[in-house]
Amino acid sequence: MTENRPVVTRFAPSPTGYLHIGGARTALFNWLYARGRGGKFLLRIEDTDRARSTPEATEAILKGLTWLGLDWDGAPVSQFEGRDRHAEVAREMLANGSAYKCFSTPEEIEAFRETARAEGRSTLFLSPWRDADPATYPEAPYVIRLRAPREGQTVVRDAVQGDVTFGNDQLDDMILLRSDGTPTYMHAVVVDDHDMGVTHIIRGDDHLTNAARQQQVYQGMGWDIPVFAHIPLIHGTDGKKLSKRHGAVGLHEYAAAGYPAAAMRNYLARLGWSHGDDELFDDAQALEWFDLPGIGKAPARLDFKKLEHVSGYHIGQMPDEDLMQEIADYLGETGQNPLGPVQITRLQAILPVLKAKAKTLPALLEQGHFALTERPVQIEEKALTALDTVSRGILAELTAALQHDSWIREDLEAAAKLIGERHGLGLGKIAAPLRAALAGRSSTPSVFDMMLALGREETLARLQDQAG
Ligand code: GLU
């Protein structure tokens, strides 16, 4: 039993060129489970498909994990590099009788299947070499096959799915080592997981049937079977299997859309796992709460509204310093210019206002546009209508009035109010030309917040630019 050993989990992606949102969630679950228990979280790149396994494809996965804030222990393990060890184990299984040499050719196997089909029998291949006397072995290439039990059942005790029973007559003697000496994927996974000391395998339920066959390899070697937890795959908004037509499936697309990593961790943790009614939580809580019984059996659906909500919460909660870093990362990720020192100072000044409302980083930057733009401020057409002659006159008066007042909200408000009253206009009416002059836009934070963030000199210069 593996229950009492320190927890070791792993994420074992095949390099596909990017980190899929489902893979990111699998990685997160494994990370939370291990880190929440003082265990290890390992990474194995299943790079046996040489054509797809480019360094760039691996790099994309590491980059995705790093962006998400998931750190792993030790260097990533390359499955391909372990091929000698995989072969060695297959030979050990030959020696202990849990595997056998099969000399059947592809043509013979095909002929077997055709006959079986014609006779209405199962087409699962039954090798004639399973019980053959080694004295009868030909001088010919062979594969090494698992000697799987033919009778009875194999039960996968899954922490999510419960006991899942497979009739052994449905599981054939799978190939462990091909005739060219290369291991099969199914075999390599078991050897790697055993050698890496993995105690808990948390992965998508598309691997559930594999678990039954992999379990037989563990048994063949007399190895401890890890705890399996097969999690339902993520579905799209319509309840169908997630695909590109539902929207972004690559984690990098979410990063580029400006969802902070902390929000993605929270959102992904809730995709298929729950802790009571808790929807919004931080890493410390997730690490404390995450467990296998909280994983549901029904597929979780992507819900972009919920993601926005979670994202808004995390942006609002984030310390300013971290948020500035997220913004810098986001700009880098999307190929935009980094912020200059003046932009940083102004954005920092308005950040408490912006972060209370924004749901994504681009939405935050959009509201903070006035702090990032420079004079002369470009005035959008919609905002231009607020700058008629009367309004320009008001801006001139205000510029004069604000020369000497102290730069605090009460005084700014009082000055604007006074001038408004002089013209029989409320603050609301005064605000439109001020927004236009300060930001060039009609939708902005409050004009006084903008003035405070910009400071006296810049505010007056922007007002002066538009004053008539
Ligand atoms: N490489 C497999 C995949 O990307 C995962 C295998 C496993 O977790 O056992 O789907």
Description:
The chain has 468 residues and is mostly helical. Among the domains are: 8-71 and 189-235, Rossmann fold (3-Layer(aba) Sandwich), CATH 3.40.50.620; 85-177, Glutamyl-tRNA Synthetase, Domain 3 (Glutamyl-tRNA Synthetase, domain 3, Alpha-Beta Complex), CATH 3.90.800; 381-466, Arc Repressor Mutant, subunit A (Orthogonal Bundle). Helices cover 47% and strands 10% of the residues. It contains 19 helices and ten strands. The protein has helices at 21-35, 55-68, 83-96, 106-118, 185-195, 208-221, 251-256, 261-270, 283-289, 304-317, 320-333, 341-355, 361-367, 369-372, 381-384, 389-401, 409-422, 427-439, 447-466; strands at 8-11, 40-45, 77-78, 99-102, 143-146, 153-158, 162-167, 175-177, 200-204, 227-231. It has a three-stranded parallel β-sheet, with helices on one face. Helix 16 packs across helix 17 (409-422) and helix 18 crosses helix 19 (447-466). The model has no long low-confidence stretch (mean pLDDT 96). Residues 12-14, 46, 189, 203, 207 line the site of glutamic acid (GLU). The site of glutamic acid has 7 residues, from loops.
Précis, in short:
The chain has helices spanning 21-35, 55-68, 83-96, 106-118, 185-195, 208-221, 251-256, 261-270, 283-289, 304-317, 320-333, 341-355, 361-367, 369-372, 381-384, 389-401, 409-422, 427-439, 447-466; strands at residues 8-11, 40-45, 77-78, 99-102, 143-146, 153-158, 162-167, 175-177, 200-204, 227-231. With 468 residues, it is mainly α.
Topology (SSEs and partners):
Blueprint: E1 8-11, H1 21-35, E2 40-45, H2 55-68, E3 77-78, H3 83-96, E4 99-102, H4 106-118, E5 143-146, E6 153-158, E7 162-167, E8 175-177, H5 185-195, E9 200-204, H6 208-221, E10 227-231, H7 251-256, H8 261-270, H9 283-289, H10 304-317, H11 320-333, H12 341-355, H13 361-367, H14 369-372, H15 381-384, H16 389-401, H17 409-422, H18 427-439, H19 447-466
Parallel strand pairs: 1-2, 2-3, 9-10
Antiparallel strand pairs: 4-5, 5-8, 6-7
Helix pairs in contact: 3-5, 5-6, 8-10, 12-19, 16-17, 16-19, 18-19
Bound molecules: glutamic acid (GLU).
